[in-house]
Amino acid sequence: MSLRICILETDVLRPELVDQYQGYGRMFEHLFTHQPIAAEFRVYNVMNGEYPDDDEVFDAYLVTGSKADSFGDDPWIARLKTFLLDRYKRGDKLLGVCFGHQLLALLLGGRSERAHQGWGVGTHRYVMAAKAPWMSPQVEELTLLISHQDQVTQLPENATVIASSDFCPYAAYHIGDQVLCFQGHPEFIHDYSRALLELRQQHLGPEVYSKGVASLDQQHQGTTVAEWMMRFVAHKPQGSAA
User: Fold this and answer.
1) What does the pLDDT look like over 48-70, one tens digit per residue?
2) Measured between alpha carbons, how far is residue 68 from residues 134, 201, 215 in Å?
3) In total, how many domains does the chain have?
4) Which of 11, 124, 183, 226 lies in the 20 to 30 Å Cα band around 196?
């Protein structure tokens, strides 16, 4: 039986990238086809006011990345926060990536803000800080493609750090068996990261840009994170109903 995942898309791609990549929802759908757990997806662009009907049932809700700030006061962000808090209170499983990672931390008692470290781009390596039954296959270090200038600077009290680096101390966390979030982009591929770097070259400056491009020679473990996400959704904690 397939897991049912609701993808809450929180951005629209730059016009230059739409034809090839379509949107973050489609990129996640493609990513999840490369991991072994069967799943089906429905994508709703919440920037455009799209949400599932109240009677639709999903095994988890995934919040994508976005150019927007998680701490912004845009009306669509306020509506999304209300929706997610309601789902959290109902006990639904929540997944977050980049913007979603920051928004869920903020929503559940942590802090997200513009990072003094500046832009993180290209391929980034993290030290694993925790293990859990759903983190299979296991890795000693985690490498992901990144593109962010905001970070989680304080975790919710009940959160556990999974992956960390000096540049990004709270790069991944989980809250029990209900919330799992990553700052990096498992759905990115090298070509997409390279295209973003080209489009932002002037804004990033020559040093950040050149280091970012050079780092794209490294592999990333997006499919590993995709499998962790699906195992997290499928995982039944001990003592829970099957």
Assistant:
1) 999 999 889 999 999 999 998 99
2) 30, 19, 25
3) 1
4) 226
